[in-house]
Amino acid sequence: MLESLLVPTGIVTLAEIGDKTQLLALVLAARFRKPWPIIAGIVVATLANHFAAGAVGNWIADWLTPVLLHSLLAVAFLAVAAWALIPDTLDENEGSRFKRHGAFITTLIAFFLAEMGDKTQIATVMLAAQYPDFVMVVLGTTLGMLLANVPVVLAGNFAAERLPLKLIHRLAALAFLLLGLYAAYQALHLAGLLG
Questions:
Q1: Following CA atoms 171, 177, 180, 184 in sequence, which dihedral angle do they give, to the nearest 10 degrees?
Q2: Structural domain of 24
Q3: Considering the entire predicted model, what is its pTM?
Q4: Does residue 21 form part of some domain?
Q5: pLDDT tens digits for 58-92?
Q6: Exposure class string for 120-150: b at 16+ Cβ within 10 A, else e
Q7: Which of 27, 84, 152, 181 could make a disulfide contact with 172, Cβ separation 3.0–4.6 Å?
Q8: Is 195 domain-assigned?
């Protein structure tokens, strides 16, 4: 059970650094200068988004054979490993159209929408498919989002400029690569292709 929390936390923390939603957190912090409503918006948006993603991952795991599930997970984790090496950019207008609603509502809406189809949302689907306790996975991926974004909201540009983003992206890619290789190993083992 602890693994269902800790692995998603670590994976998403690494994957989120330099991600579009982290850049969005930085923009929102600069615009509103109200860290606690922004952090609350991130928590609620991430829980809602990742709960839906985790439910999808859990549902997929129930419908696929173990060999097919691990084969698909291997391919998906390897694809996200490659994706983690591509730095994200932020559309200048992202979040600004909701600004009149205040820091919390703006963050809630902007973060929820920005997470749709993002690598951390897709990672949540895959992690929930791999680990049996999807609530712990969702809590772990949400905690990972907070570990990556709260310091940015609190410290602003200072923290973002000092992070070795290229190294962090490589570490995230390595983590997804290892998960992909492990899933491939499990698929081959379950298929009886390994001794």
A1: -140
A2: 2-190
A3: 0.78
A4: yes
A5: 999 899 898 998 898 888 888 878 877 776 555 55
A6: bbbbbbbbbbbbebbebbbbbbbbbbbbbbb
A7: 84
A8: no
